[in-house]
Every structure is written in C-alpha cells, then in structure tokens.
Amino acid sequence: MDSAKAQAILDASRSSMGMDISPVDLLNIEMFASRVIALADYRKSLATYLHKKMGVVAPNLAALIGDQVGARLISHAGSLTNLAKYPASTVQILGAEKALFRALKTKTNTPKYGLLFHSTFIGRAGQTNKGRISRYLANKCSIASRIDCFADAQSSIFGEKLKQQVEDRLKFYETGTKPAKNIDVMKEALEEFTTLQTTLASESGKKKKKKKKDKSADDQDAADASLNGTLNGTLNGTEVEENGKKKKKKKNKDLDADVANESVNGGENGETKKKKKKSLAGEGEEGTPAKKSKMEVDEDVGGGSEKKKKKKKKSLSAE
Q: Quick one: where's region Disordered (predicted)?
C-alpha cells in the first residue's frame, strides 16, 4: 500500500467519530481481506505463468505489445499460426467484429482498433493519431507473429527492435523527428540475431566437447576397472589352481606316507605273527601238550569206551 493512502486513512480515522466493530462484522472483514489477498496472489502467479509461456511461444510479440495483449490476440485468433496468417488490417480490428459488421450494415465509420486498444501505445497517442498508431502497431504485430511462428530459433531481438520503431513513430507524431528506416532496423536485428546464434552454438559445442571428454574419461576408467578386474580374476584363478595343485601334491604325499607306514606296520605284524607261530610250535615240541585234532579226540573216546566194556565183562564173569 502507498504511504499517501495510508496517511489519508490515518487522517480520516482521526477526524471521524467512528464506532465499535462487532465480532461478526470483524469476522466478515477478515474473511474479505483474506479473500482479496488470495486473489492478488493468484493473479501474480497467473502473470508469472503467462510471462514464462509467452517467452517460449511468442517472445517477439510479447516484447512488442506485452504478455496479456499478445495472449489475447493468440487466443482470439485460435493459434499463433492463424494469427501469423492474418493480414495487418485484420489484426488491427481483431476483437471488434460486432462493431465492424454494424458499421458496414449502417454505413458508418468502421472501428479503428480492437484488442490493440489495451496496448500502452494507443493510450499514449493523441486523439487524432490513435488510428494511425493502431494501424502501424498492427503492422508490427503481424511481422512479430510471423517471426515467432516460422523462425527456427526463438529470440526477442526482433520484438525489441519493432517496439523501438513504434516508440520512434510516436515521437515522430509528437515532435516530427524522422525515425530510422525499417530495412536498416531489420538488418541490425538480423546481425544481432546471427551473433547470438554463433555464441550459443560455440557454447553448446564447448559443452558437448566437455561432455564427450567426461564420457571418454568415464569410459576409460570403466575399461581400466574391468581390465583390473579381469587381471585380478586371472591372478586369483592361477593362485587358486597353484594352491589346489600344492594341496593335491601334499595329499598324495600324505597318502604315500600312510601307505608306506601301513606296509611297514603290516610287515612288522606279519613277522610278529610268524614269530608267535614259531614260538608256539617250539613249545609243543619241548613238552607242552599240543592240541589234538578232532579225529584223535574221537579215537581216544572210542578206546576208552571199549576198555570200560571189557572191564564190565570181566566183572560179570568173576561173579
């Protein structure tokens, strides 16, 4: 809020009698103030969105007549391509079709401007020069819309130069100073545009070279890492194979040693068994009763039984 308005409100509050505000009135006032603040914020956000969008879609038209008027022209025409196809006379009265047909029907004066009336240039012009400046502005708007629609690269250089031409035309209507020619202004704008494009191309080339260098460095690092990985893998594989071979050799040596020990132990056990057999045989010869075989045992049993029978017979005969 301006300081003058604040001072005026303060002075009025001091001079007026006033009255107490009820709680209901205070609540409604607060709600209304919050709604106004929210609408103001929303309008600011829409203005920023429109400025960004017009800078992308039609930068030259936005630089010439502003974001809001340019957006209204594009919306009324349907698209930027349709607006670029319109002649300057149609752009001049775009938005005043009803007044135009009514004037044609009643055979009165046709309208001098349509949506272009909201531009600041027409408001700054005098009453006698409003039609002339609107015709000149419509001509520059058609040029700007065609550049925006059919140019390969977007830039606001042409729009700024066209705006300067309109300013010079206003000065010419007021003071009579001659403005620069259109061909000279367009040549200057084209030179600036080409220099801008070359600088942008050089910067993009530098960026691409830097990206390529970074990419090549990353690829080299990745290749080195993969090579180191393969080398480490092969070295580890050879070490594992050597360790396996060493372990196999050690196992074979241990097995050979065990076999040799078993053979030695087996020989010793055989010798001990032979010695035991020999010792047992020697003891039998020396006087220890050797074990009889089964046949011998049976014969001994049979002989004993026969002797018993003879003794029984003798005893019976004696009786």
A: 200-319
How does pLDDT run across 128-141, given as a tens digit for each residue? Answer: 888 899 999 999 99
DSSP per-residue letters across 77-111: HSSHHHHHHS-HHHHHTTT-HHHHHHHHHHT-PPP
Residues counted in the chain: 319
Identify the pLDDT of residue 249: 60
Phi/psi for 176 (5° steps) reads 95, 5
* Closest-CA residue to 94 (of 57, 56, 129, 142): 142
Question: Do residues 166 and 69 make contact, with C-beta atoms less than 8 angstroms apart?
Answer: no
Averaged pLDDT of the chain: 79
| Domain limits, the chain | 61-206
Among 81-85, 244-248, 278-282, top mean pLDDT goes to: 81-85
CB atoms within 10 A of CB 192: 15
For 180-216, write each residue's pLDDT tens digit. Answer: 888 998 999 889 888 888 888 888 777 777 776 777 7
* Token code pair at residue 108: 């009165």
From residue 214, alpha-carbon distances to 133, 201, 267 in Å are: 56, 20, 78
Q: Which amino acid is at 137?
A: L
SS3 22: coil
Q: How far is CA 154 from CA 60, 84, 142, 151, in A?
A: 8, 15, 16, 7
**Euclidean distance between CA atoms 72 and 54, whole angstroms:** 11
CATH class of 61-206: mainly alpha
CA angle 99, 105, 110 (to 5 degrees): 40
Residue with tokens 């010869």: 285
Distance, in Å, from the CA atom of 117 to the CA atom of 114, rounded to the nearest integer, reads 6
